[in-house]
Amino acid sequence: MNDLYARHRQVLPDWLALYYDEPLEITHGEGRHVWDADGNRYLDFFGGILTTMTAHALPEVTKAVSEQAGRIIHSSTLYLNRPMVELAERVAHLSGIPDARVFFTTSGTEANDTALLLATTYRRTNTILAMRNSYHGRSFSAVGITGNKSWSPTALSPLQTLYVHGGVRTRGPYAELNDRDFVAACVEDLRDLLGHTRPPAALIAEPIQGVGGFTSPPDGLYAAFRKVLQEQGILWIADEVQTGWGRTGEHFWGWQAHGQSGPPDIVTFAKGIGNGMSIGGVIARSEIMNCLDSNSISTFGGTQITMAAGLANLSYLLDHDLQGNARRVGGLLIERLRCIAAQLPGVREVRGRGLMIGVELVKPGTDEADPKSASAVLESARANGLLIGKGGGHNTSALRVAPPLSLTVAEAEEGAAILEQALRSAY
Fold it and tell me: What is the CA radius of gyration of the chain?
């Protein structure tokens, strides 16, 4: 392992982040478990950053990929592609967007980049509204709108970005307000912001902020924003790269918690739909999707082998009601973690929905971030057979818990016990 780490350091960028003091090589997985190169087994509560959505080595997906690989792997979008059309039909139907069109990419970053291209072209302006504490990818334009300093390495951008309040409920200038007043204050802030600039192209927002530590506003905030945006024709882009496909349990899409004013104009997705295969995409109303007046293709977006995986994975998800499982098992897991947190001075908050759970850590007796303890909890959990993630934004540090949606009650209890032990060792 040390040899592989040395080779990694020799040929890959210094800024390519790795977890753990002794980085982990994962060699194979099954169900909700993975194994490392030394034969150690781990309960996986992070799923390759929320990407292994259903299960590791899911037989239905493995079979679909193998059969498709035996026929043809790739042809590009220059040719008709049956699996791509079939998956697009299903995604369009599930999106809730009228007269929807779907464009497939290879990642969430590329999906958000495409959404920004569509919105700015359609609206003829390069001004974008984004949420504070947000993350939307690592392309030049996505980094330019990311409201999280830890993940935004340059001040240069092809876009003019204005940042809006509301993505973080329990911090910031409106944290002490009740939910109703919080929403009202954020809406008033948005109205005031729009009074100082020409109308932007779009607001892009994650229903639950992923990298930012699984933070979210009260239900209905983006619906209230949408009423204001519609007054000036400003589009709403819902970044569902982490929240889509039923992960939140209560809804199939994260935006549905804010759907009182109708669906978004554009939805971006990625991660879980491919269960590890590289699929991203954009869903938009036809007049928005068709607004480009130049030719375009995607060499690898929508390639046959990834579409076969997506179709099989989506079918499994729907046939086995994994959204319902995320609601039931995730609800139990959140309550278990909240009971643990109540006994520990370093846990500020347990938040989230379904199987998308954040555990915010602070230095005991303060409201200050505690990244050192977050790293220590990660190490301790790994030592006892549990993999989790971490995140956070401005002066925050959070653990991120996001298992595959097929998680069982027994596995949830096992993971919670390991995480409790790790938290107690830190606090």
Answer: 21
Q: Which two tokens stand for residue 355?
A: 């199987």
Task: In whole angstroms, give the CA distance from residue 147 to residue 196.
Answer: 20
CA distance 424 to 418: 10
Phi and psi at 186, nearest 5°, equal -65, -40
Per residue in 376-418, pLDDT (tens digit) is 999 999 999 999 999 999 889 999 999 999 999 999 999 999 9
DSSP string, 286-340: HHHHTT--S----SSTT-HHHHHHHHHHHHHHHHTTHHHHHHHHHHHHHHHHHHH
Contact 286, 100 (CB under 8 A): yes
Task: Give the separation between CA 232 and CA 291, rounded to whole angstroms.
Answer: 19
- Name the amino acid, one letter, at 13: P
Q: 265-298: per-residue pLDDT in tens?
A: 999 999 999 999 999 999 999 999 999 999 999 9
What are the residues whose beta carbons fall under 8 Å from the beta carbon of 32, sequence distance 6 or more? 43, 44, 55, 56, 403, 404, 406, 407, 408, 411
Task: Name the pairing type of β-strands 26-30 and 33-36.
Answer: antiparallel
Phi, psi of 411 (to 5 degrees): -70, -35
CA–CA distance, 84 with 258 (Å, rounded to integer):
29
Helices (H), 102-207: 108-123, 140-145, 179-194
- Cβ contacts of residue 417 below 8 Å, gap of 6+? none
Amino acid of residue 314? L
Number of H helices, E strands in the chain: 13, 15
Positive/negative CA dihedral, 351, 356, 360, 361: positive
How many CA atoms lie within 13 Å of 226's alpha carbon, on the beta-carbon side? 19
- In the chain, the N- to C-terminal Cα span, in Å, equals 31
DSSP H/E element including 91: helix 82-95
SS3 283: strand
pTM surpassing 0.70? yes
